[in-house]
Amino acid sequence: MRSLDRSIFLHVEKICFILINYVTNRLWSKYKFAKVMLGVSRNATISAIRGETGHVPILIRLASPLLKFVFRVSKMPLDSLVYKGYLDCLQMAQSSNMGWLSGVKELLDHVKNRTIWPCLLSHAKIDKPKMLCKQITSALMNEYIGTWKNIINNGISSSRRAQVDSSGGNKLRTYCTFKNSYHRENYLVMIKRKDIRRSLTRLRISAHNLMIETGRHLKLNIVDRVCPTCGVLEDELHFVTSCSMYEAARDTLYKHVINISPVFAYLTPQEKCMFLMNKGSSDFQIVTHLAAYVHDATELRIEYSLT
Ligand SMILES: [Zn+2]
Q1: What pTM value is reported for the model?
Q2: Cβ atoms of residues 105 and 31 within 8 Å
Q3: Angle between helices 100-110 and 129-154 (to 10 degrees)
Q4: Which of 103, 143, 202, 285 shows a CA-CA span of 20 to 30 A to 278?
Q5: How far is CA 31 from CA 51, 89, 105, in A?
Q6: CA neighbours closer than 13 Å in the CB half-sphere of residue 188
Q7: Rounded distance, CA 33 to CA 30, Å?
């Protein structure tokens, strides 16, 4: 009776596991859900969305629970229904690469773990299972972040080659200069007003309406993507540090930032932009002033476009 209860419990657990996996994958499919929450268009770069949210793919998050589940089942009483079912799955995975345990085998092969699967096959004790789960999750995470860094730095992923424009420029050319680590950006929590937060996100991930991006869609050469007011390249650096359209708002921003960090006054425009993007994602005061500037300037830019 105890075995039967356990069997029912494990089956319910497995069904919940599959349902959660399905729902989460649907929600994060092509990051549509994240794009809606961030308030950016569906064409926004997925790698930048990942970088801003620090989202960890479901397959990596489930690796440890999945392995712990296998370890737990492998230690069940030999005469239990669950254990007998587990043995069938184990043989199926070994002989024909089928069944849910074949996924576990693939996972272990992928991370080049040569100890766990033989232990499962021979019903031997697995040493330090918690540490093994941590090591495997860490290996998956390192591989994932390595791929992500490669994509934002080179602007090339096999599925998103369209985001590299005709001039060979990387859509995330600015983003990769200040985004150095994979984590959820604090400003997403610090800034409560959705419209202000959205303006900052759009600027950071180049999902904005500056000429550097709108010119890409119009297939203009880089040299023709100029600011309508200043006649020079209108990119994120120009928008933040030098466009004459937002001088008054910028003066206010700079005064606040210099009060907080006097060294800011001596930085070059490029350094100022990097400083703001870096500090402007974690320092609450700078975040607040930067986001207000970006939002006001964005509104001005939209008004200008409409006139
Ligand atoms: Zn300008």
Answers
A1: 0.79
A2: no
A3: 70
A4: 143
A5: 12, 33, 28
A6: 18
A7: 8
- Identify the CA nearest to 225 among candidates 173, 178, 148: 173
Q: What residue spans define the domains of the chain?
A: 2-152, 165-306
Given this model, what pLDDT does residue 34 score? 83
Q: If you measure from the C-alpha of residue 239 to the centroid of ligand 1, how many angstroms do you get, rounded to a whole number?
A: 7
Coarse DSSP helix, strand, coil percentages of the chain, rounded to the nearest 5 percent: 70, 0, 30
Ligand 1 (single-atom ion) residues, CB below 5 Å = 227, 229-230, 243
Yes or no: say if 174 and 240 are a contact pair by the CB < 8 Å rule: no
Give residue-wise pLDDT tens across range 185-216: 999 999 999 999 999 999 999 999 899 999 98
d(CA 178, CA 184): 14
CA-to-CA distance for 270 and 184, rounded, in angstroms?
Answer: 24
Sign of CA dihedral 204, 158, 146, 107: positive
Model confidence at 171: pLDDT above 90: no
CA 207 to ligand 1 center in whole angstroms: 18
Residue 284: name the closest of 185, 177, 208, 156 by CA.
185
Task: Tell me which residue of 42, 49, 40 sits closest to 198, measured CA to CA.
Answer: 40
Q: Which amino acid is at 141?
A: M
Quick one: which H or E segment has residue 74? helix 58-74
Contact between 170 and 236 under an 8 Å Cβ cutoff? The reply is: no
Query: What pLDDT was estimated at residue 23?
Result: 58
Please check the confidence at residue 7 and state whether its pLDDT lies above 60.
Answer: no
- Token pair 């200069």 is found at 177
| Rounded distance between C-alpha atoms, residue 72 and residue 87, angstroms | 13
> How many A from CA of 211 to the centre of ligand 1?
10
| Distance between Cα 190 and ligand 1 center (Å) | 29
Residue 31 has a pLDDT of 75
